[in-house]
Amino acid sequence: MVGAAGEHDVVAAVRMAVAQGRPVGVMASGHSPSVAADGAVLINTGRMNGVEVNPRTRSAWVEAGTRWRQVVERAGPHGLAPLNGSSPNVGAVGYTTGGGAGLLGRRFGFAADHVRRLRVVTADGRLREVGPGSDPDLFWAVRGGKDNFGVAVGMEIELFPVSRLYGGGLYFPVDATGDVLHAYAEWSRSL
């Protein structure tokens, strides 16, 4: 297991794995690996949690181990928001490279569609900067393809002007289902 503190640690870990003929696994925000990592080099990017917000360009640079809470806290004072999910504890990069259908998705779309560039360590141990004009096939594959294209060590994402977000859940007892559905149907006719 490698506790990466920066992208060069990820490069070294991938190169070591390749030299030893081992597979590579990545864990960022504490979610358990979905498959056994026996014999693999497991790279934990949790210490790579830097966030830089640029309010002028409405963007943020997010390192691989950053959780959404950190991005929201830094973007919010500028009246900006990322396309995060519902949990502040989820890793921003893993969520986004997995597609990212979140709270603001109906208005702005998938989080993966608003990645401007990525830094990725590929299987050959190279650190690559990828974007629409630089290695567009890899850029396309990592955004939504998540695994097996490389280790994303950072990403630049778009931020959106959101001054307030109203949300929450309404819960009703089962025996009120009929009344609730009829009331909702009536209410939604006048929206």
Please explain how this structure is put together.
There is one protein chain. By secondary structure, the chain is α+β, with helices and mostly antiparallel strands. 29% of the residues lie in helices and 22% in strands. It contains six helices and ten strands. It has helices spanning 7-20, 68-75, 92-97, 105-108, 136-145, 177-189, and strands spanning 2-3, 24-27, 41-44, 51-54, 59-63, 80-81, 115-121, 127-130, 151-158, 160-161. The strands form three sheets. A five-stranded antiparallel β-sheet has the order 4-5-9-7-8. Strand 4 (51-54) and strand 5 (59-63) form a beta hairpin. The longest helix is centred in the first third of the chain and has 14 residues, at 7-20. The mean pLDDT is 91.
- Are there runs of 5+ residues with pLDDT below 50, and where? none
How many strand segments?
A: 10
The geometry reads as elongated
Helical residues, percent: 25-40%
Distance between the termini: 54 Å
Strand content is 15-25%
In short:
With 191 residues, the chain is of the alpha+beta class. It has helices at 7-20, 68-75, 92-97, 105-108, 136-145, 177-189, and strands at residues 2-3, 24-27, 41-44, 51-54, 59-63, 80-81, 115-121, 127-130, 151-158, 160-161. Strands 4-5-9-7-8 form a five-stranded antiparallel sheet. A three-stranded parallel sheet has the order 1-3-2, with helices on one face. A two-stranded antiparallel ribbon has the order 6-10.
